[in-house]
Amino acid sequence: MRIVCPYCGERGNEEFSYLGDASLVRPDPAGANVTQAFANYVYMRDNPRGVHRELWYHVAGCHSWLVVTRDTMSHEITRVEFARDAASVRSLTGGGG
Amino acid sequence: MKYSAFSLIYETLRGHADWKPVWREPKPKAEYDVIIVGGGGHGLAAAYYLAKEHGLRNVAVLEKGWIGSGNAGRNTTIIRSNYLLPANIQFYEWSMKLWERLERDLNYNVMVSQRGIINLYHSDAQRDAFARRGNAMRLNGVDAELLDRKQVRAMLPFLDYDNARFPIHGGLLQRRGGTARHDAVVWGYARAADRRGVDIIQNCEVTGFVIRNGRIAGVETAGGTIRAGKVGLAVAGNTSRLAAMAGLRLPIESHVIQAFVTESIKPAIDCVLTFGAGHFYVSQSDKGGLVFGGDLDGYNTYAQRGNLPTVEDIIEGGVALWPGLGRLRLLRHWGGLIDMSMDGSPIIDRTPIDGLYLNGGWCYGGFKATPASGWCFAHMIARDVPHALNAPFRLDRFAAGTVIDEKGQGAQPNLH
Amino acid sequence: MTQQAASSPSNTMHSIPPHRLPHGGLIDRSTPLRFSFDGHSYAGLAGDTLASALVANGVRLVGRSFKYHRPRGIFSAGSDEPNALVELRDGTRREPNTRATTVELFDGLTAASQHHWPSLAFDVMAMNDVLSPFLPAGFYYKTFMWPTGFWEKVYEPAIRRAAGLGRAAGADDPDEYEKASRIATFS
């Protein structure tokens, strides 16, 4: 599996470490139902068979956090972006990943 | 017909004309008391114990492919109960006790071989951690021995003891651990369940659930709807997908773990061996191939295949431990679709939907659990309450904080 | 009658192999090589595979089948060879299950046939072939269950010794290797 890091170019997946689902939104600690919200955030996952937006860290390269859009069945990667760019798009569009 | 040397000889003399099919291939009925979704080891074992222990025979096992085509046919056949946490020790030890009588219970040679499993340690700190685990096992009545370097060398002289980076200091041995023939486990449970009236329906994928007023009423399949009073899910890496059909989200990520077998060679290793300085474990099948495996690839996948960097890592671990491996040829290599849970421990519980039961989150350790998992799941389904052995494996333990985290890695599935 | 080059030392070991063609092929008839198979010395030529050199010397029996120990010869000319599996070299560099058809012959090569007892020509385990009607596919799932405990103590050890083809060296590989990686685009 090859990931095209925006800084470093195309690299093998072994240069990266994997965190998981990038669509999770950390709940507001002052919000309602905070215990249940945090339990869902920390533990519950969609785990889709198909398109998955996920966080990878370029540990053997530029140390960027990347949001990779990848199909969990074919492993085809259709998009790679810096996590900070994905996050600012999310805050502009107001919430959910 | 009972399997035995006599029946084998008798049938030979009759030209093998009278063998009965090992299991029937019935068409599904319109309704069952219990439907088990998933025809792997756990699902078939659950159906068998439903019939044997609880007298429930109006049971069907629905399998989307052929039985045993999932992880039951892809594992590295290791059985053991050498865990640290009491909930795990007691559960897997019950499984060991069921393994020890399984061929008699099923009248099928599942080739249980209690040849011993050794976990090597490579530092004083690791020795102390393994001693702690061994003591936890002994406190729960399970056999464990701490071996020093000399004792390990007497059993396994061909390992690299003086490896500059990872010298072998000793090992934790469970003599009663070992292997069992995985395909035979599937076929043995299938035959025994079928003989008790369970319908095994292959090529029957569940595509949805019928739920009325928060209660399960049946399943939808390509061939139509089948009504059921109770439904149990035992679908390993497909657990999230099936649960989503019932509107449930779970603390599970689906991953791949790869496994390998070499070409057949004469007996080279008589026990199960795990490397302590990397994730690598190996044993030798009765056919002669070395069966080995190691780490997960580490990313969400449903592909049942992994990538080359992991292959290289695993084999590097093997050759560091046992340099003689380098001259052997790899025959076959494959991947399994595993349901990694958020604490590395399984889930055997009800769900928020009445009559729908969940058996999943087995990570890469489901094979050794097969008998106890089926046994507990049958209890859960038949009586609607958990047995003491699976009571800790609740679905709500994550929110409640009573996680069972053997490796102490926290809520990161790919680290368990 | 075919003749080797006059300077060939192979005349001193065996008579000229009767199966060599006088011309053609990819071998170099001016460069003889010596090798040993199952303890016997033979002559080969540069460019031979171990298999072609054995055929040139009239050696037809090179192995035994996995289950029934039926006599096996050289079946193919390449990497798809299912039968001519030999132990290449001896000692710490021994490689089991090596296809004789893919080994380029070198001077001093030693190889041995596998999976027979006491010898390749007279293999007691060929009794399995006589008993084959009693040993259909999967027969071991239907038996070996009685008496209790005999599976592990008696049946399994015997089956494990009967199974497997070649023998691993059991010792450290003394050689060192370079590693090179070419990344395949493979998801």
What do you see in this structure?
The complex is a heterotrimer of chains A (97), B (416) and C (187). Chain A is built from 2 helices and 6 strands; from the N terminus they run βββαβββα. Chain A has helices spanning 34-43, 83-92, and strands at 2-5, 9-12, 17-21, 51-57, 65-71, 77-82. In chain A, the strands form 2 sheets. Chain A has a 4-stranded antiparallel beta sheet. Chain B has 416 residues and is an alpha/beta fold. Chain B contains 10 helices and 18 strands. Chain B is globular and about 65 Å long. Chain C contains 3 helices and 7 strands. With 187 residues, chain C is of the alpha+beta class. The longest helix of chain C has 13 residues, at 150-162. The radius of gyration of chain C is 21 Å and the shape is globular. Chains in contact: A-B, A-C, B-C. Chains B and C meet through helix 1 and helix 6 of B and strand 6 and helix 3 of C.
Task: Give descriptors for this structure.
heterotrimer, A: 97 residues, alpha+beta, two-stranded antiparallel sheet, 2 helices, globular, B: 416 residues, 8-stranded mixed sheet
